[in-house]
Write a structure and sequence with these properties.
InterPro entries: 1-PFruKinase (IPR022463), Carboh/pur_kinase_PfkB_CS (IPR002173), PfkB_dom (IPR011611), Ribokinase-like (IPR029056), Tagatose/fructose_Pkinase (IPR017583). It catalyses: beta-D-fructose 1-phosphate + ATP = beta-D-fructose 1,6-bisphosphate + ADP + H(+). The protein is an alpha/beta fold. Helix content is about 35%, strand content about 25%. A 10-stranded mixed sheet has the order 5-4-1-8-9-10-11-12-13-14, with helices on both faces. A 4-stranded mixed sheet has the order 3-2-6-7. The chain binds adenosine-5'-diphosphate and 1,6-di-O-phosphono-beta-D-fructofuranose.
């Protein structure tokens, strides 16, 4: 069982328009809502592939109630933590050429007690789990070291822990040495404090984090695929998608594929292959829809242990 915790979940509304222009009135051509937040997306992707998972999240207010209903409809096992503030609504505006503009709300303020209750519930659920994943931004009010505390709590219970966040909460979590992290290119550049433009620079940056004690660093590189770096582990994988539809949540699907494979005993490179497959399949689907087994059919994944360090990245 893979436990996910999403301290700042969302309802994701995807709105399609012909041509987005700031300051103008637009008539949408379509719209949809999906359950959102990074850990929730990972649990959705795992559920769609029949992989056991439990999603924990603070589900407050009418939006929290709606999010719980959406998760139940999708068959995602979840444990709501009751909080006073309402779940946020994040908006993605999608244009026909695939350009996506995202507006993410900050989320409700969590009190100290609510942040502690979420941590305690996750620590309880971690006992006997294959992995615990903490993912996404922290809502206002949650302490910056919330993910660092989660890493310590999971380690105390003998459970492997993955963290996928950004900014100060991610930097604090790194110091606590999670088992695995999944930054994208921008997040890795932020963690090492320098721009990364070619594959060799990404590999070197990921190695620095491995040397600090992170066992496995998976870096997602959008259309350029992903790498895994660990002690004695280095591989690059990519899949070519001819008609990408929406990249919202692709990183979450990649991480779901990686954790599912590792939970089933795959080696880190096999897990990279499955992660890239699930991530690539996600971009063929609208909004943040997650791939089913049928959606994975016919997507070829190339895995290469000898990577071209000079490969320029699209960023
Ligand atoms: N245009 C694309 N074509 C093929 N695969 C893609 C494309 N965009 C994303 N992916 C796959 O999805 C993964 C996650 O995407 P990425 O944008 O890097 O994550 P995040 O959502 O975390 O920023 C990538 O590593 C890649 O495997
Ligand atoms: O917690 P954050 O960083 O604001 O991100 C939340 C957003 O990320 C997602 O989980 C995935 O979106 P991305 O494409 O930005 O990875 C959305 O469902 C959600 O709206």
């Amino acid at each position: 069982m893979i436990i996910t915790v999403t301290p700042n979940p969302s309802i994701d509304r995807t709105i399609a328009v012909d041509d987005l222009r700031a300051g103008q009135v637009h008539r949408a051509t379509s719209s949809r809502i999906d359950p959102g937040g990074k850990g929730i997306n990972v649990s959705r992707a795992l559920t769609a592939q029949d992989s056991p998972t439990l999603a924990l999240a603070p589900l407050g207010g009418p939006e929290g109630h709606l999010l719980g209903e959406l998760l139940a409809t999708a068959g995602v096992a979840h444990r709501p933590i009751d909080v006073g503030g309402s779940v946020r609504m994040n908006v993605a505006v999608v244009e026909p050429n695939g350009t996506t503009t995202k507006l993410n709300e900050p989320g409700p303020v969590l009190s100290d007690g609510e942040a502690q209750a979420l941590l305690a519930a996750t620590a309880d659920a971690a006992v006997g789990a294959t992995w615990v994943l903490g993912s996404g931004s922290l809502p206002p009010g949650a302490p910056t070291n919330w993910y660092a505390d989660l890493v310590a709590a999971a380690r105390d219970r003998g459970t492997r822990v993955a963290i996928d966040s950004s900014g100060a909460p991610m930097a604090a979590a790194l110091a606590a040495c999670p088992t695995l992290i999944k930054p994208n290119l921008d997040e890795l550049a932020e963690l090492v404090g320098r721009p990364l433009t070619v594959l060799g620079e990404v590999v070197d940056a990921a190695y620095e984090l491995v040397e600090e004690g992170i066992a496995l660093v998976y870096v997602s590189l959008g259309a350029d695929g992903a790498i895994v770096v660990g002690n004695d582990v280095l591989a690059y994988a990519r899949a070519t998608i001819t008609a990408p539809l929406s990249s919202v949540g692709a990183g979450d699907c990649l991480l779901a594929g990686v954790l599912d494979a590792l939970a089933h005993g795959a080696d880190p490179v096999g897990a990279l292959r499955q992660g890239v497959l699930w991530g690539a399949a996600a971009v063929t689907l609208p909004g943040s829809r997650v791939p089913t087994p049928e959606d994975l059919i016919g997507i070829p994944v190339q895995v290469d242990a000898h990577l071209d360090r000079s490969l320029a990245l699209a960023g």
